[in-house]
Amino acid sequence: IQMTQSPSSLSASVGDRVTITCRASQSISSYLNWYQQKPGKAAKLLIFGAINLQSGVPSRFSGSGSGTEFTLTISSLQPEDFATYYCQQSYNMWTFGQGTKVEVK
Amino acid sequence: QVTLEESGPTVVKPTQTVTLNCTISGFSLTTSGEGVGWIRQPPGKALEWLALIYWDDDKRFRPDLEGRLAITKDPSKDQILLTVTNADPADTGTYYCAHLQTVGWSSYFDYWGQGTPVTVSS
Q1: Which of the two residues, B76 and A25, has the higher pLDDT score?
Q2: Three-state secondary structure readout of A22-70
Q3: Smallest CA–CA separation between A18 and chain B, in Å?
Q4: What is the reported pLDDT for B24?
Q5: Backbone angles phi, psi at B110, to 5 degrees
Q6: How far A6 CA sits from the closest chain B CA (Å)?
């Protein structure tokens, strides 16, 4: 299963609403997870099962979608949110998207 | 508290075999439902899932690397080993091990190690 994220990168300002899209090459139901990675660090789980917020993750992060199209939304971008975001399917083994880098505008 | 820590050689020559170790704490691979996976990240590139082992010794491998990968566990030492044979410069990157949480049919990597760098170069 191929996972395609868009855009590959985006520029945004603190306070902006940010949306990242992830598309699967076939239906994966709701078996979709989102991770955040900062330079030199391991990835951190944000959302699992497409819509469920991992414990300790701020509520400004939310996920939606099912089937083949999914969205990660950051409602009001904070300075600590500049990072790369990855989607990952768990319908058939595990595959990551190519990542979306959120940069300072 | 769940923790994972990777260790292994930082530099290997092409065609050699790379063996990486993941030492876990806070959970046990003897417990039903538990799993540990390996994920790597080439420099400047995306995360790539490689392999996974479950508590019952069931294993899964990335299809395009399956012939070069092996994964084993030693529960008595709380260690999980990943072996990559016939190393190639394309195997260069940071290798992470991560705890797999399974909820029904859904699964996700909720705890990660800090990663260990591997460079394949002559």
Answers
A1: A25
A2: EEECCCCCCCEEEEEECCCCCCEEEEECCCEECCCCCCCEEEEEECCEE
A3: 20
A4: 97
A5: -100, -20
A6: 14
Decide if A31 and B112 are in contact by the 8 Å CB cutoff: no
Cα–Cα distance for residue pair A102/A4, rounded to 1 Å:
16
pLDDT digits (tens, 9 = 90+) for B6-42: 999 999 999 999 999 999 999 999 999 899 999 999 9
pLDDT in tens, chain A (105 residues): 999 999 999 999 999 999 999 999 999 999 999 999 999 999 999 999 999 999 999 999 999 999 999 999 999 999 999 999 999 999 999 999 999 999 999
Q: Is the pLDDT of residue B75 over 90?
A: no
Number of A/B CB contacts below 8 angstroms equals 62
Chain B residues touching residue A41 (CB < 8 angstroms)? 114
Inter-residue contact A81 to A74 (CB < 8 Å): yes
Closest CA in chain B for residue A88: B108
- Inspect the interface and report whether the beta carbons of B108 and A43 lie closer than 8 Å: no
Paired sense of beta strands A9-12 and A100-104, if any: parallel
